[in-house]
């Protein structure tokens, strides 16, 4: 689904507004949870509020937190937040970005060896002189004392530029190979069929490309020196993946991806994989019951999703995702947590290898569009960014 899809079906959920610090929650087993999960008892604390559409989160050592604001006063903004005091400082040295529609300053992630390697990576939308847009990723060295990103440099632009302000994808993680991977949306081309841009390996829209900040594309890359393919494409056939995370045990890269009318997906990426959009999909065209593509199980030339919300359901328009591997909330151990935008909650799926089971969600009574979620490794607390023009970042702590 698109980011605003389903809002008319979810208006009752939206009525709750923002509920801030000190609110307790308790989630137990239900009729829809036959596994009888242990009770999840937590409290919700506000870390910082008054943010402009926060989009990405990156936990730093020594109580730091980087938060991107997609749009504030007509520009993107990066904030350095103290997780203990809630104080914030805008970080200078951030690139100029295109702000409009779904565009702006988007994700943030840090080098795996941070702070020894103080590189901070940003994804964002940019425009050319013709007003066409693309997703770009760049990096700078964080000076926390200023705070400032020094020597910021663009690394990769998801070509071609197109006349659209939607479907930038733009979630970024470091893979087990120590290289950054960035999701790309289809921008959104509507010519469903085999000629769709997401089915082309020669262009970046609808693909997951890894930029190459530390040298050339690795020799093991799936399309290196392949005729008609961009050597930066790692996987393709994606619509608008806005969540990506690495499994803490297997090292596999998992994505959450928006469908059209339902058809939302959880995918486990493999090098060179075609994830089907739009030729293999469980969703329907907007406003219809007409399938977009073939059932994934009927297309051996594509990779089937690990989990999907089929046409005829409310879908699950997904945003940021993470695996919970902390100790503070042990009943969540090993679960995949995915932000739900139109549904306005934090989705929870238990994982058994490649098999997923949807469980009772978290924060379903708050009316929050959940944009990003991450875990602080030293505490196990769960940090959640709420997507609104005047919004908080909250954390879930033991109740």
Please specify the SSE layout and strand pairing:
Layout: H1 11-14, E1 23-27, E2 40-51, E3 54-59, E4 64-72, E5 75-82, E6 88-90, E7 105-110, E8 119-127, E9 133-143, E10 148-157, E11 172-174, E12 180-182, E13 207-208, E14 235-236, E15 240-246, E16 253-258, E17 264-268, E18 307-309, E19 318-323, E20 336-340, E21 345-352, E22 355-358, E23 370-375, E24 382-386, E25 391-398
Major β-sheet strand ordering? 1-2-25-24-23
Low-confidence stretches: 4-36
> Would you state the CATH class?
Mainly Beta
Number of helices: 1
Report the end-to-end length measured between terminal Cα atoms: 34 Å
Share of β-strand residues: 35-45%
Order of helices and strands: HEEEEEEEEEEEEEEEEEEEEEEEEE
- Under CATH, the topology can be stated as Neuraminidase
What does the average pLDDT come to?
Answer: 88
Biggest beta-sheet profile: 5 strands, antiparallel
Q: What spatial form do the alpha-carbon principal axes imply? A: globular
Secondary-structure-derived class: mainly beta
CATH architecture title: 6 Propeller
Q: Give me the Rg, rounded.
A: 20 Å
Determine the CATH superfamily. Answer: TolB, C-terminal domain
The domain count comes to 1
Number of strands: 25
Indicate the percent of residues in helices: under 10%
Brief rundown of the structure:
With 399 residues, the chain is mainly beta. The chain is built from one helix and 25 strands.
Question: Can you describe what's shown?
Answer:
By secondary structure, this protein is mainly β. The protein has one domain: Neuraminidase (6 Propeller), CATH 2.120.10. A five-stranded antiparallel sheet has the order 1-2-25-24-23, with no helix packed on it. Strands 3-4-5-6 form a four-stranded antiparallel sheet, with no helix packed on it. It is globular and about 50 Å long. The chain starts with 10 loop residues before the first helix and ends with a strand.
């Amino acid at each position: 689904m698109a980011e605003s899809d389903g809002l008319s079906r979810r208006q009752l959920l939206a009525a709750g507004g923002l509920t801030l610090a000190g609110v307790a929650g308790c989630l137990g087993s239900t009729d829809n949870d036959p596994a009888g999960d242990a009770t999840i008892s937590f409290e919700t604390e506000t870390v910082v509020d008054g943010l402009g559409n926060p989009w990405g989160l990156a936990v730093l050592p020594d109580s730091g937190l980087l938060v991107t604001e997609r749009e504030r006063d007509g520009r993107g903004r990066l904030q350095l937040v103290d997780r203990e005091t809630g104080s914030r400082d805008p970080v200078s040295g951030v690139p100029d970005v295109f702000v409009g529609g779904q565009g702006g300053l988007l994700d943030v992630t840090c080098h795996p060896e941070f702070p020894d390697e103080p590189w901070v990576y940003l994804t964002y939308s940019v425009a050319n002189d013709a007003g066409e847009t693309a997703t770009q990723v760049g990096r700078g060295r964080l000076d926390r004392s200023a705070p400032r990103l020094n020597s910021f440099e663009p690394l990769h632009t998801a070509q071609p530029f197109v006349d659209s302000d939607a479907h930038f994808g733009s979630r970024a993680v470091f893979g087990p190979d120590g290289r950054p991977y960035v999701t790309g949306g289809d921008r959104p081309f509507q010519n469903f069929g085999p000629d769709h841009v997401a089915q082309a390996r020669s262009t970046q829209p609808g693909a997951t490309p890894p930029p190459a900040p530390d040298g050339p594309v690795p020799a093991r890359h799936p399309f290196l020196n392949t005729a008609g393919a961009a050597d930066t494409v790692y996987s393709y056939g994606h619509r608008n993946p806005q969540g990506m995370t690495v499994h803490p045990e297997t090292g596999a890269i998992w994505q959450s991806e928006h469908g059209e009318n339902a058809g939302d997906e959880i995918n486990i990426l493999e090098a060179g994989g075609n994830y089907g959009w739009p030729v293999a999909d469980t969703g329907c065209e907007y406003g219809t019951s007409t399938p977009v593509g073939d059932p994934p199980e009927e297309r051996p030339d594509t990779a089937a999703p690990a989990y999907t919300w089929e046409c005829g359901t409310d879908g699950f328009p997904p945003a940021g995702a993470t695996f919970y591997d902390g100790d503070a909330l042990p009943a969540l151990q090993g679960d995949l947590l995915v932000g739900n935008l139109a549904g306005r909650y934090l989705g929870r799926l238990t994982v058994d290898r490649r098999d997923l089971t949807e469980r009772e969600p978290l924060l379903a009574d708050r009316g929050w569009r959940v944009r990003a979620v991450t875990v602080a490794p030293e505490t196990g607390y769960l940090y959640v960014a709420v997507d609104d023009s005047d919004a908080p970042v909250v954390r879930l702590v033991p109740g």
